[in-house]
Write a structure and sequence with these properties.
The complex is a heterodimer of chains A (152) and B (986). With 152 residues, chain A is mainly α. In chain A, 93% of the residues lie in helices and 0% in strands. The chains are: A mainly alpha (152), B mainly alpha (986). Chains A and B meet through helix 1 and helix 2 of A and helix 1 of B.
Chain lengths: 152, 986
Amino acid sequence: MWQAIAGIAGLASSVVGAAGQAAAGRAAEEEAKLTSFNIGTEKEMNKIQAMQAAQARREEYDIATSTNIAAFAAMGRDIGSDRSVQAFLERQKEILGQDVGRIQTQTQFENLAADMRSNIERLRGANERRAANIRAAGTLFKGVSSYAQTKD
Amino acid sequence: MAVIRQRTQVFNRPFGVVRGDAGGAKIGQAIAEVASDVSQIAYREAAKNAQEAGKKAGLAVSTTDVTAIDPKTNMPVAYKPPSNFGGIAAEAYQTMIDRRFEDSVLTELQTKGSEFADKASNSKQYLELMTNYVEEMYNAGSQGAQGTFYTRYIEETGKAYVSKTFAALQEQERKAAAARLKKQSRLDFALKKIDIQKRIKAMEVSPELQADILDLNEMALTQYVGGAATISEVSGAQELSYGYDALLGNTNLTQIYVGSTESEQAQMRAALLNPAAIDQHIKDPKLQGYIFQALSGKATGKQIVDGLDLNEETQIQLADARDTEFLENNFPTPTMTIEELNSRLKDQSPEVRSEFIERLFQMKLEPELEATNIDSIINELSKDVSQIDENNLPESVRGLVGGMNRDDINDLVTNLKSRNSALSGTAAAELNAALERTSGFIGSMNAAKNINDLRSYYVDALKSLKGITNNTNRNSKRETIEAKFADLAKSLVNTDSISLDELKKVHRAITLNADTFDGSSQANAYFNVMSKAYKTSDASISRKMSAIETKRAEIIQDGVNQTILEIALEKQKEGLPLGDTEKDVVTLHHYKGVMPSAITLSGDKGFLERAAANSILPIELEVIENGLTSGNFKEQEAAFRLFQQLTNVKQSDGSQEFNRDFLRNKIDKDKYSLANAAISVANFRSIVGISNESPQEIYSKMFQFSGSIDSAVKREIGLADNKNLATIFIDSDYGMTDFDRDSQREFLDILRFNVASGTPLNEKIFEQIKDSYKSTLVEDTRVIGQKVGDSTHFSLDVAFDDSDQAKMYLYIAEELASDSAYEDYLRLTGMEAFADVVFRERHSEVKNKLIRSQLDKYIKFEPIRDTWIGYTGNKSFIVKMKAIDGGYIPVTPNSFPLIVMESMFKDDPSTERSFLSYKNASIAANATNNKVAIAETELRLFLKLHPERYPNVDSLFEIPAKYKIQEVLTREQMEIIYNEEMGDGE
């Protein structure tokens, strides 16, 4: 009688154990999804930061250009016809363009990396769940096997 | 204003390679783990199947192949496993073969042992038969080859079995012989008495000699019958009386003897007892001649009685002796018929006849005795014998009155009258109810159809006797029950219930040595028992039939023994003393003929429980006694452990506890005294640090001493041999009149050990031992108490450095300094200088120096053993720790500190077990702290308990608040608090 009760108790605990393992797998997957979502959020934040950086760079250029035009004027240079002044201003504009371009490129690649990390995280979560399910199946198998050995 | 030049501000940074664990490996790992588990399960199943197969194959082999040894391999024929078996199956198979082989050998030995025990006329013949048989088994097994495990198993198991059973048979024979000798000795004594009386009357010898001879004989007989003398002591007394007898055989010798001095008479008696050594006692050739002449004329008592013309008085004495013997050895049974009675009493005197019939009458009357008919029976029996109408008596006793004389009928009437007065009111009703209950069980015995049922009702009937308050009724009922059981048991194994035709078939089957018989259940049972007896007996038919009768008697006896055992075990459980027969049966039950060892007994909880109930068996006493002198160290150690336990058993009569000694007067007196002395000396030597020899080592030295140790001690210290050693504690010259009883005993044991170990004991050494011993005693009981505080003293040394100790002593000394009695004491004991310093000079430097060097020799603290200080938050208390076995856990310097116990109370108060296990684990780690805690506790408690002497104790040391003693509780209060803290406390 007691052996039978003990055997059933053993089987029940293995079922509970397997359920626990499967639940742990699901939890791992949920956690990975959350991490992936957080990475997505990080990417959006990154974009905003890049826009802000580009905007700031532009404002700095605008202020500097206004100042430079005033300075050239004060120096008596003809802003409209003086080729060297024109070349200088073009050069300044080019530098600004380069900086803004680099900001965009950096953001683009960082976003790409974030996408990759997000995908990998999703995949890891799914795999954690699969591994947990496999272990749960093994636990169930062992439980059933042990019960079969101990029952009358 | 300077021109602002744009500088490149933004540079691309490495955004890093994205590496990630997608968890693929985990899937693989999980698959691998599960696969491994599955593989293990599959292997386990396969191994189990293989084992089962091996076992089954091992069981299927025939017994012949298991027991027959193959001469080529020296192993059983069946030992080689089937070729298709793997390692596991083969191992299981061979294990099974081994087990079956061992079982077969043992079964064969037991079967043959039982057969030879029936067949052999004595234990020696049994030993010879069994030894030969074992040798045959061994030879058949080995077939000349070298010994293997199997042949060795036969040899060793066989020898062990023969040795065990032989010892048991020998013991049975010894007891039977002792019983025969006892019976014979009584008759010898009666005859001897008559003989000596006759001879004394015929000769003129001094009244003193007459008295000597008669007293000697009478005393020995009385002691023997009363159980106070042993067979050997009685034999000695007999020899001595024969010496007197021979003395009387020669007139000249008698006259010389009467006129001799006491020492000359002793020499003459010695010569008479041992004529071969006559030259050592008697030098005079003429006197030697008289002695030889006297001895040659000596005859046995029986011959003398037969040859004498006895006078009337002697004849009466002899007839009385014969009558007594008959009545002591013959008893009526309730079912006895008048014909059986007459046959049994045919050669007996009228007095015996009357007495015997009276017993039978009472026995038959008992079951029919009621409160309502007792008066009419008394009335009838009170008439003249010729007037008694037996039709007015119960049917079962009719026909008996005529065989009794008036005196015996009067005895019956007296007995019935006393019963009648007891049979009144409630008592009568209760007694009647008890008698009816017993009668009911007797009725059930009558209805029993088999021996087991009969035995069960028999036990119930005997148990029901407890309810019968009247002794006569109870004894009579017991006799009825026992006689009924014997008769019914006999009838259950006889052939009455088998039809004549079937009985013929059974007998035919038995004489044809058939293995089975197919018939009615009674016939089958009869066949099973009797055919075995028939087969194992000698060849002749008469002997075979006799074997059947013997077997039938054995079956009855087995039933009786089993019943005695059940009752004896119940009595043991209730702590009631056992009779000799009960002890024998219980011994057989417990040890099955094999003598236990002291080691076995000391580990046997059942034995110790029985010992505490004072139910020690004779065989167990023998084991302890022999164990004390065993050459085996462990055996001796166990015997001493048992000795110490059983000589000091704590018991309670409900109101007070006391110690009982279960071994005194039960084991050899000398061994008992020596063992006690050895324990005492070993304890003493250990305490004073001389050595750590165990009691058994001390005992061995003392046991080897040749002669009387006490005489040697007296000789060495100059005390006359005829004086008691205890004189030294009475005579003030020895200076030991203040020794209490325990100290006296211990001191004498030390002297005995000194002599026994070969150390000289002259006056000087005696004084040294005395001084040394006295130094361990307390000098001043007024100050300290009666015992040395060993643990406290030791703890103080460990716990406090010199300055702390000096501070304590100083405090006490200052308190004592105001005690004039203490000053007197110091002066009386030769400590004037010290007293002057303490009481007069008050010079602190000198005083401290003296205190450090001297005072610790005089001040010792009473140990407050078994005591803890506990703390419940706002109140301190003292706790006596109760152990699982009901005693108290001793608190020693090795116990764990207070703080640990306190936390245990708080954190885990549920069980004592966790408490004890924690204690054990803590001992080593906390040893030093423990000693400190104990020392502090004991010292403070001691001081606190004597507030009249030490009023400032709390301010002396900075005692943590929680350890301050705020209230000293009584023992009962302690136990209440303890129980509250520890659950139910039991």
